[in-house]
User: Fold CCHC-type domain-containing protein from Phytophthora fragariae.
Amino acid sequence: MSCLGGRARSWAYGRRLTDPTCFSTYEVFKEELRQAFEPPQNEFRSRAEFLDLQQGKHDVHAYAQRARYLVSNIVTNPIDEATKVVTFMKGLKDGPVKTYLFREYPSTLESAITLGMQEEFSLRQAKLHVNVPRPMPRPTVKPTGGPVPMDLSSATAAGSQQRRGPTNVRCFRCGNNGHYARECTAPVQAAKGRRDDTGYRHGQ
Assistant:
């Protein structure tokens, strides 16, 4: 007792003052001293912490790892599986993962952990997909008085028709229909002969 200090020394001498025969043997003294001042057993602390475990700001993976560690420390009187599952699900923060687990209600702690992490991963993937920026449509630029593209097919057709000329027009140079005299390509002599012949026929 003389080697003790602080609260342990005060406790031991206080016990002796109230009951001089309280420590009948050295073994009895050590056991009572251990029960009074030894830190709580790790198993007891782990059990208490697990039953009050909360996810808080951690993700499901970190929360699950903490739950596994605490459960592994409880060896003497293990917690039954149903209590493990309920405690784990109850400690999850409110949200889609917790709602999903209570809908599925897994039978073991490992099943609950696996389902919870899978659901959290799926939610993260969906969120990333939604946040991907979509390409903006290219704005349509209206013409501001500049050159306007032409329909070449219409222009070609019109040009061909113009070159062919109207079919009801008569050439006064060669006497044929379908073109004007200014467009006539007949030789001059042939055109003159035809013109004279035409005049002769008209004279008859």
Remarks:
- DSSP finds nine helices and no strands in the chain.
- The CA atoms of residues 189 and 195 lie 10 Å apart.
- Residues 42-129 form one domain.
